[in-house]
Each structure stands twice: as structure tokens, then as C-alpha cells.
Amino acid sequence: MDFVNAIILLLNYIFVPALAYGSQLALGAIFVTLIYGILRFANFATGDMMSFGTMFVILFTFYFQSVGISFGVLPTALLAIPFGIIFMVGYMLIVDKLVFKYYRINKSPPVQLAMVSIGVMFVTQAVVRIIIGPSDRRFFDGEKFLIKAGEFKEMTGLNEGLAIKSTQVITIIVTLILVSTLFWFLNKTKTGKSMRAYSDNEDLALLSGIDPKKIVMITWVIAGILATIGGALYGLDKSFKPFTYFNNMLPIFAAAIVGGIGNPFGAFLGGYVIAFSEILLTYAYKKFFMYVLPESMEPDGLIQLLSTDYKFAVSFSILVIVLLYRPSGIFKGKVL
Amino acid sequence: MRKNLNVIAAYSIMMGLIILVGIFQSWNIALSIFNLCLISAVMTMGANIQWGYAGLINFGIMGFTALGGLAAVLISVDPVQEAWSAGGFNILLSLFLIIAMVLAVRYILKNYKKSKNRTYIVAAIIILGIVIIRFISEPGIEAIEGVNPAKTGFLGGLGLPIIFSWVVGAFFAGGLAFVIGKVALGLRADYLAIATLLISEIVIAIIKHEDWLTRGVKNVIGLKRPAPYEVNLQQTDWFISLVEKFNSSKLNLITDLTERQATLNQLVIEGSSVFVKLCYSGLFLVVVVILLILTQKALYSPWGRMMRAIRDNEEAANAMGKNVVKQHLLIFVLGSAIVGIAGAMLVTQDGLFTPGSYRPLRYTFLIWVMVIIGGSGNNFGAILGGFVVWFLWIEAAPIGLYLVNLTTAGLDDTHFLKVHLIESVPYFRFLMMGVGLLVIMRYRPKGILPEKIEIK
Predict the structure, then answer these.
(1) What's the pTM?
(2) What is the CATH number of domain B2-79+156-443?
């Protein structure tokens, strides 16, 4: 029985949260990796673009709530996401036309594009803060828990409760659907294949008659979908604050590079690698060992490898190690 | 003279703007803008050496700034004797163990061939070392943090004048840059950017949470000053007579004695804070001028020519027998050290060290905006960039308010759009920076004062 308790404990505090957080990171990481693979620059505006999309989701959610439209037990935000995506994609295409296109056509070095993306980051940040303000916003409604800790205890008669938030389940399901559709698109359809060809070898792709304008546009559309959904899911699960989104850029970059930048599947797994290592290394295992070990061997300390303050530092250290020993990432992305 | 005309013009306009602020807002504000402009200028000079001279991207400026600030704390705060006797031994022992661990790893990496076993042994040493160090340091840290936590709770510093920290800050930042450079300089440009950005976050996390060293988020306040205190100044005779002399025409107009005394007191209070800021300006100006002379000399020396050659064509420079890796490391360390000086200056001016306030937007990206807008590769341009961008960063709110009032003049004062826009005026600074950066990068990619290479 103690053993089952220990498993439930780990499920509750490590596995489920890490899976949800990892999915949110994975969406962002695929966004970064697609931009990097096809448009060939590190997009420092990633976090702020995600907050831009989320902002529109929130505005539409508030509008729907005021009109009285709801989605039953599911959060209204799910209904608002398509509208958020439309605005996000529109914004991205405008930014591309006004800013990035010029450098792409001039074949500027990637560093210059990265610098330009910093300018876009500042502008996007300003726009988000001017429209919705810098404060913390919660826009979740509907049923909060799928399984409550108390109910679970009653049901199974265990000491440890397992609480599963509905946002966690939504996050995981939506991510799985989205990512599998994306991989199907990239691997099976003609447009997806031409995107991969363009990413692999630009000149060769152009020679074989692939239209670069179309590729770039589709990339931004997919990026907009990923950014909005990723941002909205993160906001539903935690809360929306522009500053947090800006900071999330860092673990997202870490996930993309750890997975091998330019490789969408690597980025997808990279998100989970980062999330699991952050949570595994900063969790206090005292209770777990209390269940597993006999009473005489019970630990005194918290058995925490690192204090939770170093959560971000963990993912960055992993990144540094990966960059040192396997610069192309765990799943072989582009070689540096 | 002719060819420097644009430099002189740009700097006169900048000084004119600051003087205008002095006349229309107050000299206090003008001087505090000026001081931070000088500090920003030092930071941009550091970033400019790396980016402009050598083409290295360093997005870790925040980390080096914070290390400089840490130096200011460790140099100027008086040592906390109690904390040293409580946990000093454990800390010193763990420090010794860390050094031993690094040396052991180095020894193994040097003397054994690359193999799986070697990797395992190195990993084992590191993991074992971390566990042992944690066991030794934990009681020490707890003891130190337990010593009067409301006021100290850390080891304190050396109790030396804070000016020394400017040099020490440079060494701290340079040391960190050496380590980062050894690890990351081989990466391609944009990976280097991301790696340095993340490493600087790690540095901030450590400074924020190692309370025994830095007091963490509890902040260190009331650092010693290199300049006199306002309160003391207000009671010194020579200062009062100085203020009297400066404002004699104004004071002579007032005939009533008590009223005259009251006005004088007011003037002395205002004057004292202006005087203190002027002291800082003088100190900072000395640093900026010294650095400017050194960097200018370096730029036109054979070494500077070699750096440009490496920047413009690494392979060719390599083929000519220049050690690219070594020079990159050198310039990375030098630039970061200059940023470290700026970090120490910043904390010196504020008189307090707040690890929570180090954010990448303010200390990394803004500095980069300064370098790009000012003109990378040109020291005068970089300094100008520091001035222009910091000035706009501060004055963006008043300018934004003016613009909002102008564009919404037709609307009622209580109209929701106007109220909302006026509330969000502080964020216009982000918009201004972003648009400024984008416009400069598009239409004047070399900055306001572009790099000019004179061939003599």
C-alpha cells in the first residue's frame, strides 16, 4: 500500500504538472524551431508574440462571457482561441511584411535578423501592455478539477490524493492533437514536404519550383497557431502576465536547442525534457522516501537536490551541457 | 575638424537636450539622467568592444552588471564578525573543495585520453563533490543566515572604500567572462547570444538566492558613498556661503530677513542634492574619459586592426597566423570587465544593491539597443547611443503623455479611450525603443555615428 501511495505522490506532484508544463513549452519550442528552420533566425520576440496571441484570446473570452456564451464545463477560452489565432496570424504577417521581409530578401546574416526581432519584441511588448496592461489576469472558467484530491482518496482509500486539473488534461490533449496534425502536415502533404525541403536546402528547393513566398506565409500561419494555442494553454493553466511570458522565452529556447534546433520533433520532446528535469531536480523527496523506506531509515532533510529557486537555472544548465557535448541537440537538428 | 562635425553636432544636441530638461523640469532630474547616461555609456563601450570590434554577441550583459554590483557590496560593506565566526570556516572549506574539484577535473581532462570511462569519472567527481560540498556548507549557511537576519544575515564585505569595487567589479566580470568564453565562444553567433542570455540568468538566480553572500532579495541598503552626504553638506559653512554666492541676486531681492533665511534654507537643500550628483558626475566622467582614451588607442593600434580583420574575415585572419580563438577570448573578457565596472558604478550611485531588479530587458536588451542605435564599432557612437537611448527611456513618459493629449484633444477628458491611453503612458518607452531600433536598423544600419576607419 505504501508503495502505491508513493507512486500516486509522484504522479500528483511531478508527473502530471511536468506533462502539462512540458506540453506548453513544447508548443513554444516548435514555434521557435520552425522559425529557425525555415526563416533562419533566432526569434527573440517568441515570448511576447505568445502573449500577444493570448491577449486576444482573453479579450474574446471576456466578450463571450459578457454576451453570455459559454462552453459548458469547458473553459470559454477554447471558443475564443480561433479568433485569437486570426489576429495573431494577421499581426505576424504584417510584421513580416514590414520588418522581416526586407532582411530576408537582402539575405542579411541571421544575427541581424535576431537583432531586428529584438525590435519587434519591444514593439510587441508595448502593444500588449498598452492594450491589456501589465497586470496578472485569470480567464479560466468552467469546471476546475477533473479529479479532486479528496474524492480520489475516498474512491481508492489511499492516503495520498491525486488532483488532476481540467486545464492540465486540456493542455495535454490539445497539444497531442495539434502536434500530430502538424507532423502529419509536414510529413505527408505536398506543402509540408516543400517546407521541409526549403528548410533543408533553400537553393535546391527554389530550383525545383517551390514558391518561397508561400512557404514563408504558411510558416507564419503555423507559427501563429502554435503561439496562440501555446500561450492560451499556459495562461489557462497558470495565469496571464506579459512579464512571465517574456521570461518563458528562456526555457522555450532551451527546449528548442536541447531537442536540436530546426527539428520539430526534437523541439517537441525537448519541451518535456526541460519540464521534467526542472521539476524532478527541484522536488523535495522526503515524503516519497517516507513511504518507500522502512521507518528506521526515514530521512531527516527534505531530500531536495536543488532549491526551487533554481528551477530556471536547471534548464539553462542542461542547455549549456548539451551545447558543449552535443551542439546539434539530442535529436540531431542543424549542425552549428 | 570637418570630418568630426557630425560627432560634435550630435553631442551638442544631446547636451542641449539635457540642459533643457534642467531648465524646464529641474537640475536634479537633469543630473540624474546625465549620471545614468554616463553609466550606460560605460556599458555600451563594453558591449561595443565585443560587438563592434570583434563581432561577438554578448547577451549576458545583465549578469556582468550584477557581478559588478556584487563587487560593490563585497568591497564596501563592513564584515559581519559574528557571521564569520558562526559559519566562516564551513564556507572557506567548501570554497577550497570547489577549487580542488575543478583542479581534479582539469587534471583528468588533461592527462587522460577521451573515452567513456573518463566522462564517467569526471561526472562522478562532480556529483560526489556537489554532495560533499552541500553537506559541509549547509550548516555554515544556516548559521550565517541566522545571525541577525533582519539586519545582516550575510558575511558582509571587506569594509574598504567603495571606489575600489570598480576595479574589483571588472575583475569579477572578467573572470566570469573567461569561464563563459572558454565554454561558449566556439558557438555560432545566435547560439552564443542565447547561451550568454541563459548563463546570465543563472548568475542572477545565484545572486538572488545565495543569501549568505548577497542577502538575496532582502537587498543590501545604505552602502558607503564616495561623495558627501546631503545632510552633512547642509550644515557646512562653506557650502552655505557657496549657495548664497550663487543665488545672491535672487536673495538680494528679498528684504525681509526671516523670509530670506527660509529661501536660503530651501536653496541649500536643493543645492546639496545637486552638488552630490555633480560629485558623482565628475567621478563617472573620469571613468568614461579614461575608457574612451584607452579604447580609441586600442582601436587604431595594430591590435585593433587585427581585431577588425578577424571580425571581417575570420578565415583569412586565421590563415595569416592570428590566433582567432585566443583573441576572441581576450576581447570577450575585456568587454565584460568594462561592463562589470559599470555595474559597480551603478550600485555606487544608487547606494543599494537589489538583486531582484536585474532584468534582461533593462540590462541586456536596452544596452544592445544603445549600441545599435549609436553606431557599433565607433566608440563615440556607442557613448552617444547610451546618452540618446537613456534620455528617451526616461523622457518617453512625458513625451508619450504629450502625444496622447495631442491626438485625443478632441475627446472628452473622461472618455474611456483617453483615460486608458493616459494610464498606459509608461509603456510608450518600449514602443519608442522598438520603433527606434527597427528604423535605425532598416535605414541606417551602421547607427547614428557609423564606424569610420582612417587609414593613415
Answers:
(1) 0.90
(2) 1.10.3470
